[in-house]
Amino acid sequence: MKRINNLYDRICSMENLQLADVIARKGKKQAGITAHDKNRDANLLNLQQLLKDKTYRTSEYTTFRIFEPKERIISRLPYFPDRIAHHAVMNVMEPIFVSTFTADTYSCIKGRGIHAAVSAVKHDLKDVAGTQYCLKLDIKKFYPSVDHEILKQLLRRKIKDQDLLWLLDGIIDSADGLPIGNYLSQYFSNFYLTYFDHWLKEQKRVKYYFRYADDMVILSDNKPYLHQLLSEISNYLQGNLKLEVKDNYQVFPVKDRGIDFVGYVFFHTHVLLRKSIKQSFARMVARNNKPQSVASYKGWAKHCNTRNLLKKLLHEQV
To answer: Does residue 278 have a pLDDT over 70?
Structure first.
C-alpha cells in the first residue's frame, strides 16, 4: 500500500481553514460559533499559525450523558479552534481514509450510510441458499478500547507526512480511547478496523460481510463454519488490535429470527423495523404527530415492509 506524503501544507492553507469553518458550522447553532464570528479572520490566522508552528494543542473536552439508543458519554470540543481544525484535517484526509475501506463498511461514509447497508443486506439475502445462517457480533466497549499506539502504527502504514502524523498523534492522545462525539473519532474507528476488514474479505474469503461501526454481520450456508470463523475473528481482534468480541454474539438461522442490524430486522422474504424504533414511532404519534417527525419515521419505514404499521399509526391507505 502506497504511503502518502505532503499533506500538512494543504491542511494548514487558509483556503482549507476557511472551508473547514464553513463546513463545521453547517446545521449547528451554538454560542461557540457566535463568539468565533466576532473575530473570525483573526481566529483563522491564529489557528493557521498554531498549526504551522506546531504549537496547536487539543482543548479540554466537556462531556454529557445520553440514554438513547443506549447510555453513552459524549465528548465535545470547542468550535474554535478544535472543530475547525478537525474539519480542516478531514477535508484533506477523508478521501484517503475512504480509499482504505472495503465496500462492506457503512458507518460515517458519504453515500454509504444506514440505507446503503440496508440495500446491501437485502440484495445479498436474495441468495437464500448461501445466507441460511448469520453470525452477528460487536466489540466490547469499542471506542474506549482503541489502543493509541496500535492506531498510530496503522496510520503510519498509510501516511508518511511527519507533520501530519504529529498532529494526528496529538489529537489521538487528547483523550482515552476514542471519545464518542469527536468528529475525527468516527474516521479513526473505521480506519482502526479497516485492515481487519481486508483480512476477512481477502484472506478468509468471506463473501457476505457487513460492518456498521463495530456492529458486524456475516452470512453463510454453514453454521459450523461461522462458529469457527468467530473463533478466528476473536483471535485476530485480540492479537492485532487488543479488542474483545462482546459475549452477546449470536449464530442462528436467518429464517427463525431475522437479522437485527442498523435499525431493521431482515428476513429472506421481507424486512421489518426494529421493535424499539416502532415503539418510538408510536409514542411520537401519540404525543404530537408533527409533520416533520412523522416524515423522519416514514423515511425509515420506506426501506422496509411497513404497510400495516403506517396504516395503524397514521390511518394511511398505503
So the answer is: no
